[in-house]
Amino acid sequence: MNNILSLNKVSRSYFVRETLINVFSDIDIDIKKGEKVAIIGPSGSGKTSILNIAGLIERPNSGSVYVNNSEVDWESDKKISNLRKKNIGYVFQFNNLLSDFTILENIAFPLIINGMQKSQAMEIASDFIKNVNLSDRGNNYPNQVSGGEQQRAAIARALINKPSLIIADEPTGNLDSKTAISVVSLFNELVDEYDCSLILATHNLGIANLQDRLINIEDLIK
Q1: Is residue 168 part of a domain?
Q2: How many angstroms separate the Cα of 47 from the Cα of each of 31, 112, 114?
């Protein structure tokens, strides 16, 4: 199978008050098409940095990143933006839904910023919202629905563009354990249905074990 994502000899460090902090060095990670991978490890071990690099949000200090077999050109913001919009969806611990937009508008938003007419985007979102069992919540605003419903909306927003890869950073960190398992189970079903790959960081071993493969970041750090 082809790799959707490859991190080759990737390193990340940064300065804190003139002190160099080395987060990780020469990490290799490959995510295959259709594969769901969980990354676990203690707080501060670099999970979020790995996801930010994989999601083209954060630039590594060294190494190469490939998305759909295309090497990322870190010198071109336009190329990075286009690669990100066409290939990557994001789900975060804090769902980052737009508070002034309805749930349906939030789900439609990626289509609109990719140039689709709002009326068409809303029509697609109206159909897509059924996948996350929120049809009766489309006209509500984020503060009018539960945390689990907010996260399901965030999942729909991440998937509506049918990206090759979903990046999920502690996507259930703010949910109780029962709701978390329910949300991730639905998430995994949709990832399979839409033939995406998933890389997910979590502290929850129950959620990690629902994925196809588990990577302990402590095994990668050099």
Answers
A1: yes
A2: 15, 30, 29
